[in-house]
Amino acid sequence: MPKAGVIGLDLGSTHVRAAEVRLARGARGAATLRRYAQVPLPLGAVRDGEVADAAAVTAALQELWARGRFSSRDVNIGVGNQRVVVRELELPWVPLGQIRASLPFQVQELIPWPVEEALLDYHATGEREGPSGRMVQGMLVAATRDTVRANLLAVESAGLRPRLVDLNAFALQRALTHGAHDGRTVALVEIGARITQVVIVAGGVPRFVRLLPSGGQNVTDAVAGALGIAASEAEEVKRAAGIGLPLGDDLAVAGEAVSTVVRPLVEAIRNTCVYYSSNNPGAGVEVAVLSGGGARLRGLDRYLASTSRLTVVHGDPLAALKVAATAHLDAAAAQQASLTTPVGLALGVAA
Length: 351
Fold this sequence. Notes:
By secondary structure, this protein is an alpha/beta fold. Among the domains are: about 85-145, Dna Ligase, domain 1; about 180-315, ATPase, nucleotide binding domain (Nucleotidyltransferase, domain 5, 2-Layer Sandwich). It has helices at about 55-70, 95-100, 145-155, 170-175, 215-225, 230-240, 250-280, 300-310, 340-345, and strands at about 5-10, 15-20, 30-40, 45, 50, 75-80, 85-90, 120-130, 135-145, 160-165, 185-190, 195-200, 205-210, 285-290, 310-315, 320-325. The longest helix has 28 residues, at about 250-280. The two termini are about 15 Å apart.
């Protein structure tokens, strides 16, 4: 275990965030969040999970390290956007190394790009005996090389050393499926600025991943457009209006703008849960766990619960962690929903 702790780095659409976690020494010990910091990004510096303005992101990362006083420059980074494909894939059993080596010859029909343009990985989730022998069940993860390369270059230009490139969906699973959620079938719903991830986890194992191209910033944009106001003002109006709440005349137009984005997003989340449950009779989704900055929209939890008929709760990435005084979380308490991805990426070393 690294003495300095493990650092998860999240390149979001609006902020860069990093969390340093000291892993537990024993099976019963709790990991400790030692440091956390975040720095805002200029608009458009990261678009849909991919670095678009390398210079701006590099500068923000350098400020992040100066502000956070992290004890290492080794980082785990995540990927997760519309140029990342996650598919269930069952294959005849062979050692995992051989499965990964054979992926370019087996998955061309499952991904929308030429194999030579993709980075491929396989996450095994279980085994079964099939009619023709032992089978491995798992998830294929494919990302375009350009997406990963752009993010790596920005990170390395800031003087950081990427040690692991992980799927953000797996980070959510590590950070949120503990305590009351351990062993249940849960839908982890992380609503970011431009991307919403739905990760269905059964018995602590990720079984289904869907990425939706909409998030909290899309809601803010809709309010700004409807009222003709700046994005900063629209953010405040959006939070006042919420979703599914009684509104006065002063917020009626804003409420309708919020609804035009949130209603189809919630419907897509509901349909994802229904799809999984219909394909897994008797083992469907039991609860939805919200995280991400967009999940703080007033009324969203109740609206999703009424639409999906699921129990909806807010996830707590700190529930299974000790928090050191050096984390300085007092100023970031309102940002707790955004801690999930960097904490989960840091926990990737233990996965």
